[in-house]
Amino acid sequence: MDTASLSELRHNLRRFVAEKAPREKRRAWDRTHTWPRELFCELADMGLCGLTVSEEYGGLGQDIVAAVVVIEELSRVGAFLSGPYIHCAFYGGMNISENGSDAQKAALLPKLAKGELLFAYGLSEPDVGGDLSAVTTRARLDGDSVVIDGAKRWCTGADFADYIYCLVRSGPAEAKRKNLSFVLIPPTAPGVSLTPIEHINLRYTLSSDVHFENVRIPAANIVGGPEKWNRGWSMLAGRALDVEKIEISAAAFGVAQAAVEDAWAYAQERTQFGKPISGHQAVRHALVDARTKLEACRQMLYHAARLAQDGAPCAVETSMAKLFIGETVAEIAIICQRIVGAYALSDAYDMERHVRDLLGMAIVGGSSNMQRNNIAALLGLAQ
Question: Does residue 350 sit within a domain?
Answer without folding.
Answer: yes
